[in-house]
Design goal:
Blueprint lengths: L4 H13 L3 H7 L6 H7 L8 H11 L30 E12 L12 E8 H7 L7 E7 L12 E5 L10 E5 L4 E8 L7 E5 L8 E4 L4 E10 L3
Parallel strand pairs: 1-3
Antiparallel strand pairs: 1-2, 3-4, 4-9, 5-6, 5-9, 6-7, 7-8
């Protein structure tokens, strides 16, 4: 197994300071099992900058101690990477620092910072996805209410020009309490008008919210997940 200095550091400092993983997770504004998933399942692969700052304050270290100096895990051989045709036009899609919760809501930001840019084949986006690259944003998913379709740490490619998704389509939206990923369905005969927000995981019950409280960020076009 590949040695992971960051996770070793977190485990050591949690034990040294007598801080339970649950307590540290909640202090970071995450669900109670967040750090356990990070340490044992490798999800997320790395901690966000804001999370590193909070955790470093708890553990008595610096945020840079919680960031890998080198990529974690073995290098993927060239023959294992998907081939991109020579001369293919690549579109840069920004990943923004906002978690879209597949579960309980999380507070969104009006102007979230861009933390990365993904380079994806423009032909694939336009012809297979039917989308314009300039309308796409990438967000990280959080929670398990959309399992098995969307899991913790998956990336969502969202078309922000699609603010009125069709019935049954998956969207990222503000539901009045937080930013969530759900399938949408109009509630027939409701007055005032309501939308039913539906999870893929049957453990989570659908719930209805007034249309006036909903702000659709965009339609989910693709879900990017590590194998």
């Amino acid at each position: 197994m590949t040695r992971d200095p960051v996770r070793e550091t977190v485990r050591h400092l949690l034990r040294q300071n007598g801080i339970p993983m649950r307590e540290a997770s909640l202090a970071m504004g995450k669900n109670a099992s967040y750090l356990q998933q990070f340490l044992t399942r490798g999800s997320p692969a790395t901690l966000r900058r804001s999370d590193r700052e909070v955790l470093a304050g708890l553990l008595g270290c610096t945020p840079s101690d919680l960031w890998p100096a080198e990529p974690v895990g073995p290098e993927v051989p060239a023959y294992g990477r998907p081939a991109i045709p020579a001369g293919a036009l690549l579109a840069e899609i920004p990943e923004i620092e906002v978690d879209a919760a597949a579960g309980g809501g999380t507070t969104g930001a009006d102007n979230p910072p861009e933390i990365a840019h993904w380079r994806l084949p423009e032909d694939m986006l336009r012809h297979e996805g039917g989308v314009s690259p300039e309308n796409l944003r990438i967000l990280r998913a959080r929670g398990d209410s959309m399992e098995p379709l969307v899991g913790e740490g998956d990336r969502l490619i969202v078309d922000i020009s699609r603010r009125v998704p069709g019935t049954g389509e998956m969207a990222v939206l503000w539901d009045g309490l937080g930013l969530v990923v759900k399938r949408l369905e109009a509630v027939t005969g409701s007055d005032p008008a309501e939308l039913r927000l539906i999870s893929a995981n049957p453990v989570y019950e659908p719930y209805a919210v007034p249309v006036q409280d909903v702000h659709v960020v965009g339609k989910v076009v693709w879900v990017l997940r590590k194998a």
